[in-house]
Amino acid sequence: MSRSVESTKEAEDEPFARLIRRIEPDSALLRTWPLTGGVSAHVTALEIEQPGGLRKRLVVRRHGEADLRRNEDVAADEFRLLHLLQATGVAAPAPYYLDRSGEFFPTPSIVLEYVEGQAEFAPTNLKDYLVQFATHLARIHQVQHTRDVHRHSVDHQAPTVDLFFLPQQGEAYAAALANRPAVVDESLQEGRIRALLESVWPVPQRNPAALLHGDFWPGNTLWRDGRLAGVIDWEDAAVGDPLADLGNSRMEILWAFGLDAMEDFTQVYRSLTELDFTALPYWDLWAALRPASKIASWAGDATREASMRAGHRLFVGRAFDAARRTVWS
After folding, report:
1. Per CATH, which fold does 3-113 belong to?
2. Do the bridges between strand 144-145 and strand 160-161 make them parallel or antiparallel, or are there none, so unpaired?
3. How high does pLDDT run on average in the chain?
4. What's this model's pTM, rounded to 2 decimal places?
5. Alpha-carbon span 206 to 241, nearest angstrom
6. What interhelical angle do 242-257 and 280-289 show, nearest 10?
7. Domain coordinates of the chain in residue numbers?
8. CB-CB neighbours of 192 under 10 Å
């Protein structure tokens, strides 16, 4: 490594070194490296040396402009949620430190546990993968909002936490319908999807409000030795109908592993819950709106984009067919 490159790297690492001295004054930063794959935040892994030569890894998340425009307290909210989740059985990384001072970075940051593992898009045992994926989504949805426990017939053995600081998903979706973009993405049938949702919204709320991850897809799960080791990137968490998360996960599983895998995943999830699934076609259509005007950037290359567009057409077609057959009793 040339001296100029070393100097640049030292300058880039200097805020992280100061941050570590703030958190653990007797520890020293050994190295940093970027963690890629996410689009909403800058994520950096750190390795530090503690007294006695012990080494530990941490992660620093710095939320991007889009997240901060949507919620200026996104870092504090994510930090608080991760703290609450530690006692629930959800495989969320432990939070270590929240910085909103601007002393180390221009935007707020959170320091988290480093979860050993990686995203898995080619599991050797797809059936087992889907069972674990569905099981953990159901586990997240078992976390109940303290203020809803007395208003609904819910499982009083399930973990309860006060999620007052998270957005209400129903309100956010109503606002999204009310603010139709000037130009809709007709290549993904955005206009048609919005028209149907506008005609039925709000659909009857038949499920107790639950904790939603907001973006539960294979890229936000970490796997080690064939086991789901962690669920990351909680900045989109909200309180709402669990079917919203399910719809998004169904589309992502279809993209990643195909139609049969999507149906197997859905069947496992259904077997683990006692939810009313009548409105699932409409939540599927909400999920199908997410990549509107963004699918090219999500895909990354033309081949992947073509595959995702084909999967999206199939997903939307099935959702419209199911919506036409929906009967509210």
Report:
1. Phosphorylase Kinase; domain 1 (3.30.200)
2. parallel
3. 92
4. 0.92
5. 8
6. 60
7. 3-113, 126-325
8. 14
